[in-house]
Amino acid sequence: MAIVSRGFRGRRTEDPRLPPGQYLERGFPVLSAGPTPRADLDTWTFSIRGADGERGSWTWRELQALPADDIVRDIHCVTRWTKLDSHWRGVSLDRLLDAVRIEPDEQYVLAHCDGGYTTNVPLADLRGGQAWIAYGYDGGALPPEHGGPARLLIPHLYFWKSAKWIRSLQLLDHDVAGFWERLGYHEYGDPWKEQRYWGD
Hints:
Structural class: mainly beta
CATH superfamily: Oxidoreductase, molybdopterin-binding domain
Number of helices: 3
Order of helices and strands: EEEHEEHEEEEEEH
Shape: globular
Helix content: under 10%
Number of domains: 1
CATH class: Alpha Beta
Number of strands: 11
CATH architecture: Alpha-Beta Complex
Distance between the termini: 48 Å
């Protein structure tokens, strides 16, 4: 007869939705590189622009009037926490990008935010139901400390790519490193490949 120690529960198994090196976080940590901006919704706009200037712009009311998605996704921070089944509401970037002219050589995007923060992402990662301009979280308005009134939401990449306080997307014909990317973070940031830093 086998002897089993009290409290033995067998081998611990990780949730298959946790990427390598991540741990499960039940809260929602607040991480920011600077102070939290406060936006005036009467003057707030979100725009998409290219080398020739602005291609499209939406006021807060215009953005709110567009068809919105309710999104449930796992999010993964480069600091190693993962939050499962986070609930968001926002406008698909497919809808916004379809409303503007995009030149064939414009395959990269640099996101610009209040406070001067930037991050880069391939245009393809904003297409195909992969990304949103999110303004709602957990059934309410997106709190300022989590990027409200609106943030970029790209849940398949590390969360620093989901830039807080988003104000514009710049279409580019070449890749340009953003704030954290210039300081040593990976250019792309795939959590399943542990692309945290240069050389990963």
